[in-house]
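Consortium newsletter contribution from the modelling node. Members have asked for a concrete example of what our holo predictions look like. Here is one, prepared for the 6-O-phosphono-beta-D-glucopyranose complex that several groups have been discussing at recent meetings.
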Amino acid sequence: MSQTTIAPATGAFPDGFLWGGATAANQIEGAYASGGKGLSIQDVMPRGITTEPTEGPTPENLKQVGIDFYNRYAEDIALFAEMGFKVYRFSIAWSRIFPNGDDAEPNEEGLAFYDRVLDELEKHGIEPLVTISHYETPLNLARAYGGWRNRKLIDFYERYCQVLFERFGTRVKYWLTFNEINSVIHEPFMSGGIPVPREELTDSDLYQAIHHELVASARATKLAHEIMPGAQVGCMILAMPVYPLTPSPDDVVRAMDTAHASYAFGDIHCRGAYPGYLRRFFRDNGITIEITEQDREDLTHTVDFVSFSYYMSICESADPGQEKGPGNIMGGIPNPTLEASEWGWQIDPQGLRVVMNDYWERWGKPLFVVENGLGAKDQLVEIDGEPTVLDDYRIDYLNDHLVQVREAIEDGAEVMGYTSWGCIDVVSASTAQLSKRYGFIYVDRNDDGSGTLDRYKKKSFGWYRDVIASNGATLS
Ligand code: BG6
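And here is the predicted structure:
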């Protein structure tokens, strides 16, 4: 009789686990109009998503200088190396490569900048993880074409991808197609370059734009596999578990419906076709979109892994009187059992384990946690003559979330790595503030634009270095 041995769970992070940090071009680079770069939608969003876009760039937009990564990338990457990063997730600014999005030729100066960044990463043995599009659609594609509502963007994006894959394909193995692709439902301009407020956008127009992005993502995946054998392409989803506010079946069904809105993106990326519940949603709401035979074929090119951001969970209720609270882009009904950050984002480390089990069981693809962190106000103090930040609150937040990653691994999920968000302070995406800090490295720049841009190591810097060096054994 054959005997099956079930190995005891070790609770350990696997060998080769990719520890690191994440940023996005528009939130760090600055040099918004240098090096041949064109304008992106971020250049007309001086207050993030809190106000309407401006006509053109305005000087109060902190992203114009960012944290000056464009000039200080070598110093910053050396600090990442000092923490022991195995991987660094960053995005390529589309408008640095194609200033208008529809240009005939790419901008060599832009490509050369990312060559230099990759040189530096190689020097320190840090694996790059590249987001192809992170909330920075070229402004011209938004203003002249209507953003992703326009099918032409699929071709422009594919050409952009081709240039990236041909140029960087031997140096970059891991690629993400669109940052938080499901966020377009809530933020059509920032996420989809669609210059129409959500209230004025019909659902058919919105889902047509989503369809174009999904087809573009699938085509990029196919192209990546053709040009770069061995490359791994992931989708990137804004993950936010949805709990029913009460045990009432009405609340449970409501929570399921809300969860479906985001699941759809993963289902299509992983299974290569529209799920039944989404087709029903279209029927019930009179949504019609154009899907060609070629589109259907393109969508069958599925991703190699699933990456996601995780900051918080939300509740859902069938009671229309329940009000939504603040949160990462979509927000939701607050959970009465949870505390929140200074920006009102509720803190739920166990939600990360829930998401990881859920995604792993649903799609069976390796997972990569590519964003997680605490946006907080930091106070610079001097210890032994050195400026620093005693950010125990950040250490606690990250420790508690990483413990849940370990739990999910123990539950059986295959996890490629973890990149904490804003490993160095960045300009916030939602509010465009610098005072909403996530980093292990403090950047001396304030919301009014003042500051030296000098970098200082926070207490969490040494903590994360120890976590990485011990492959998670120092987590408590
Ligand atoms: C994610 C984005 O939504 O959350 C990042 O991918 C963003 O770009 C991060 O910075 C944190 O959000 P915020 O609004 O605090 O910057």
